[in-house]
Amino acid sequence: MPLRTEPITINIGPQHPSTHGVFRLRATFDGEVILDVEPVFGYLHRGSEKLAEERTYTQVITLTDRLDYVSSMINNQAYVLACEKLAGVEAPERGMYLRVIAAELQRIASHLVATGFLINDLGAFATPLMYCFREREKILDLFEMLCGARITVTYMRVGGVFQDAPEDFWPALKTFVKEMPIYLDEYEQLLSENEVLLIRTKGVAILSTETAINGSVSGPVLRSTGYPWDLRKADPYELYDRFDFEIPVGERGDNYDRYKVRISEMRQSIRILEQCMQQIEPGLVKTDVPLLLRPPVGEAYAHVESPKGELGFYVVSDGGVSPYRLKIRAPSFINLTILRELVIGLKLADMIVAFGSIDVNMGEVDR
Amino acid sequence: MTRLLTGEELAGHVRNAVPEAVEVWNDRDVVIRPGDVVDVCSYLKETPGLEFNYLNAISAVDYVEYFEVVYHLTSMIHNHSATLKTRVYGREEASVPSVVNIWHGADLQEREVWDLMGIQFTGHHNLKRVLLWDEFPGHPLRKDFLEEIR
Amino acid sequence: MPSLLEGNALFRGIYCWLAANEGNSGPGPCGEALRDGLLPVGWEWVAFFAAGLGIVMLLINVFLLLVMLYTYMERRLLGRFQARLGPNRTGPFGLLQPVADAIKLLTKEDLVPAGADRLLFNLAPIAMIVPVLLVLAVLPFGENSFLANINVGILFVVAVTSVNTLAMFMAGWASGNRYAMFGGMRAVAQLVSYEVPVVLSIVGILLYTGSLSMVDIVEAQRIPFILLQPLAFFIFIAGSSAEMNRSPFDLVEAESEIVSGYHTEYSGMKFGLFQLAEFGAVLVTSGVMATLFLKGWEGPVLPSHLWFLIKVFFFAFIMIWVRATLPRLRIDQVMDFAWKFLFPLSLINMFVTAVEVLVWEEPTLVQLWAMVGINLLVAVVGIVAFSFVFKRRGLSPSRVTPPLVVVEGD
In A, which residues are within 8 Å of C182 by CB distance? Predict the structure, then answer.
């Protein structure tokens, strides 16, 4: 007589240690094996797109800080690029360099958070997480020098950045750029050859390039499948065509590749930072753009390579002081399209890791 | 650098797919009839030389007299992009054919548009609210949302 | 009763202080010097119980204090491993942190979920802590310091600690929570599996000593068994950390997966009891390891009790170290590790040891060192060879086709 079994349904989240915020997965299990998952969103929905319609173009920058709160600099950048495209202004060169510096620092910070929490999801008791946060703290200190804030920075403005970097920023940045590769080596020593990590991540939750592209997946998740698509190369915005850097790609698109791509990307970001420091010259940091910006009637779509993927802003102007419509193309949200295909048939523990390796930020998913 | 197809080019391609589809075009984008969305999109995705295999974003804008649904498309093979639009008239029963069978990436985005803007996508397998809860009154990104709920 | 009166000076002291000795013929257990106790004749059993109760109270309280010290040590050391400070605000160097935690847990509301089986739910924490305390009964803490030197000591330890599985499953099932049930299920699968290699690893030692008594095992160690039985030590430390749910085998309470596993629904002091049992288990297991592999209390210069404590905290330190370093294994890998890695290795170890004991019946010291060499070689070759095989298997695809057994609710 066959044993009568029954699938059980578990609500993972909205309050759960490894849903990275308030996210809920309604998962059906057969023992430890996942039969079905249904992501449930919206616990952090603040209506950013609607709020933006009531604020001036400059005020909206503060809203973008709060989308993906571990990469606010890049959110600023994407938004101001869209506004600049709309208003037809361009930032001065030094302003652009400062933006690139801030963006690359933020990319490192975000990847550090992603890596740390991924290893935490794997069950390492917070040690790598703490190491990653140690370095992130230094980046946040640099941000504090730039603009006085650490998380919600609001550093960038339409037409540049709001102030030049102080004198003591440059030596601090230099020290950071010199030390960071050493710390990255340390992580790799601790993690990349760790047997437990290898058997837990290699060959688990494999994503194919076709599925990824068809599912509008972008960022490190797409690159981990071996497809070198990086907007900084494919569609260079700001000054990215001036820098010499590579696009790290994975081999098979498994959890390990997603982890490894992020580590390699941090090394490339450091290369960009080094080149920035060599190339930057004194000058203005902001063109004269009125604070109460009134762009002409029209629309613009600008996208940047955020740590999570393609972050796009679609701004429609009716000639007034606030955007008529602001649409945010949130990479975290859209990357979750493939979550179901990725995790069905895996075990509970691997599903948590696969979800962590996509690296979503609930502030951005729910907006 | 990703090349943005001009409206003229794109309009030519769209006419190859469905001759009557184009409504208006300007230098950046093309507006097509809502009924032709699926045919035009699958043509754009599958025709060699175009191969728009990546759907960047689906946005919806409420211009009060009509809704505009905007598709930002990119071809990762040829590194060019295009902006395709369609206009939906009628606020109550606004609906557009779903492109989820062409690009799986449209799944969550179409649900989001339905949730916040109230445009139905016919042919979507799971058109439920995504960010708001099921009992939420109205669709908040519509311009008349505030009057509607008062 | 005789073993208690002989083996334990403190017990004898309390007993003789209370019990009357007059009616006894010849020199009693208390000797000639102590003639009269406080109690009248015929009340010796009261003295016996009072002495027993006194010494058990002392033992448990000292043990719990040590557990508090251990939790402090674990948190401080984890802090050091993780590039942060750890608790350092409460009292000198944060030493009062465990006291503060205990007060917090004691004053917290004690919740019982509506869907819980109240009896089992309340019983589980007790069933969890009792085995840990029971092991103390046979653990020799120092020269002539043990509560009971029973001749099946190590068997007693193995038998008593496996009750923990039951407690975890009770907690997991009675909570009426699916995370807890996951934890309970995992606990049964994992703990029962690891029992096998752990027990088999002890067999090697028993072949050398020919006795199950803990005291005999300590005294039989001319060379510490950690050298004589390296493979057994490896299996024992891996297996027992799996039985204690320590990283990398902490699936039973995998925080990132099933929140806290079987004790998800517990709060207040019931939760505190689970924690106490867990940390206590680390100390007790370290104590067993020190006894089995590191000559127990024996050591030069320092008093024997201190030696024992040093060895216990040395093993505890190793466990903290492992916890701070390794990620967690998946459930199928954990089971594979028990059945396909540790189990065959423990059989190999048992076989090699049996052959050695057969060849050298009364080994001289030189022959013992020869055994050390052979066993070390066997250990290294065995572990390397098996990990090679295991690694190859571990890289096979993780995805299994879900079985189509969806049963419609009837």
Answer: 10, 32, 348
